Amino acid sequence: MATTTTPLPTTRAYADPSSTSARLFKQAQAVMPGGNSRTSVFMAPYPPYASEGEGCWVLDVDGDRRLDLLNNYTSLIHGHAHPAITAAATRRLARGASFPMPTPEEVELASLLVERLPAVDQVRFTNSGSEAVMMAMKAARGFTGRPKIAKFEGAYHGSYDYAEVSLGSTAENWGPLAEPASVAYSRGTAPSVLADVVVLPFNRPELAARLIERHARELAAVIIDPVPNRVGLMPATPELLETLRAVTAAHGILLIFDEVISFRIGYHGAQGHFGARPDITALGKIIGGGFPVGAVGGRAEVMAVFDPRGGTPIVPHAGTFNANPVTMAAGLAGMRLLDAASFQKMDDLAGRLRDGLAACFKDAGVEGSVTGVGSLFKIHPSSHTLVDYRSSRPDAEEAARLDRIVRYLLDHGVLLSTTGLGCLSTPMAEPEVESFLEVFTAALAAERGAAP
Ligand SMILES: Cc1ncc(COP(=O)(O)O)c(C=O)c1O
Q1: Catalytic residue status for 389
Q2: Quick check: is 285 catalytic?
Q3: Is 14 an active-site residue?
Q4: pLDDT exceeds cutoff 50 at 146
Q5: Relative to the CA of 292, which ligand 1 atom is closest?
Q6: The pTM is what?
Q7: 58, 85, 144, 424: which has the fewest Cβ within 10 Å?
Q8: Side by side, which strands form the sheet with 57-60?
Q9: Which helix (H) or strand (E) holds 250?
Q10: Among candidates 48, 62, 17, 11, which has minimal Cα distance to 411?
């Protein structure tokens, strides 16, 4: 049965030099460096400013409405302003936003997470995924008494120094595949950090195992996002996950899963989806109902490093807004809405979306491909086989193509990441997917016209 769609309108009001977005950006530049407080939301010459959101739609301050396929970088799994989440947060807010005391809400959300995640016995809350990763790494060092962390080349785990290593490696500095170089992400990284990070090639289990074994005596943990966005959003192979589990267990190294994004691929998280059992899990994004959040969880024996009973813990962990009750109440409402049926619906819809995008590339004769798992998808401006960071990193021409496509989408009613990342939310259905595919078809037609 054909699905009827409403064509999405042009959404370029922000681009007018006299627009409200232009005025706000001018003001912002005077008080924030580059007018920006979050690198990932900048776009040249300036971005449209958001005004409000409802369901899977976002209105900008210049009156244009876009289909939101980014959902604040995958965190809004129920889209914007879901009535149940709004009610839970405002009900809690009216009774006080934060206290120097624990609240009942944190116990409830912790219980839900422990019940859903097979490898998590206990959990602690933070205010971001970056902090969750940082505490996961500190827990691993505290538990093992070892200094080093191994991570995969190109993988994003937030802004903790050790997590940023080799996030932006290039062909000029990444070294041999069998032994990727530890490359500073910015001049803000101290050289001592690089010495304590072992960089592994993604989806090359034998090479990764060899490097882990070589550094085993100094390694506290290996961290992996099993569906790493910046590596290309290709899932880790079963061989890689099995190898990591075996080699870390053999050497007393902890295995950390970063599920800050990938928790959204299934009711039992990425660990449920892949049948894996990490020692520590870092969470964030969807568990906060749209509010700032993170969490670190794991085996009780490992989580005991945070236990304050009996004096200073092995790894102390404070934080003024940790487990604040507004986030906890919103997160609890959002997580309770996420039942097995909602995952199934998003999986089916995302499958249709990924197939549709791949067909668009083929029909248009434009180089491109699509990766993703569950409700996540990523558009690549190349058609070659994607295995790891090196193969999925676009060259200059490919990057320019992706940029043109994403900008076309932005100007024609669709919000997507500048890196091609997108995701579904529970308010979406077939008509939204079909509308997106129509705009995408038009974007590729424009691209064919624009291509040199
Ligand atoms: C896989 C992964 N880990 C960690 C983080 C950091 O989370 P936050 O932005 O909440 O600090 C992110 C953020 O995008 C992420 O994608």
Answers
A1: no
A2: yes
A3: no
A4: yes
A5: 10
A6: 0.97
A7: 144
A8: 50-54, 57-60, 65-68, 414-415
A9: helix 238-251
A10: 11
